[in-house]
Amino acid sequence: MFTPRPAATIIPWHGNIPRIHDSAFIAPGCRIIGDVEIGPDVSIWYNCVIRGDTNRIVIGARSNVQDGTVVHCDSPTPDRPDGYPTLIGEDVLIGHMAMVHGCILEDRAFVGLGSIVMDGACIESDAMLAAGAMLTPGKRIPARQLWGGRPAAYMRELTDAAIAGQQQGVQWYVENGRRHAQAVSEALLGPAES
Predict the structure, then answer these.
(1) How far apart are CA 121 and CA 124, in angstroms?
(2) Is 50 exceeded by the pLDDT of residue 1?
(3) What is the CATH number of the domain that holds 124?
């Protein structure tokens, strides 16, 4: 099923056209540019910027990028011929107003509200960067750990309950994305055309 994306800006860049799965929710006000791949049941929330102009960005199935977040990447250089693409796995939660730049977020990673993840950094599966934290270049959060602060440092191990709660959040965002897609279609196109 095709999902209308009214009031979002989707821009090809130097022959790279964003590839967006039909089931993804792209909210009004989003800007998606260049070499970007967005998987099934992803939700990109209001006023996000996903800019794949200097490298590629991949966002895996059921992940969500919440309101006002910026996702970018870093270009290749002579000493780093691959540069730093931004690779976001499946079932990833990215909180409001985060900055995700040239990094890897493995499946089920969590990025807190207003956090920054910098070039070459990695958040492993079931790991969490706390709200307002900054993960500096090249740092890695091991699986099932919570890191916080600026610069981010180890705080504690995550419990099974905390990890289960994150996955409930993923499912909630998939469902809420569907509800918002319907509401946006009705508001902008009218009930008969949605």
Answers:
(1) 10
(2) no
(3) 2.160.10.10
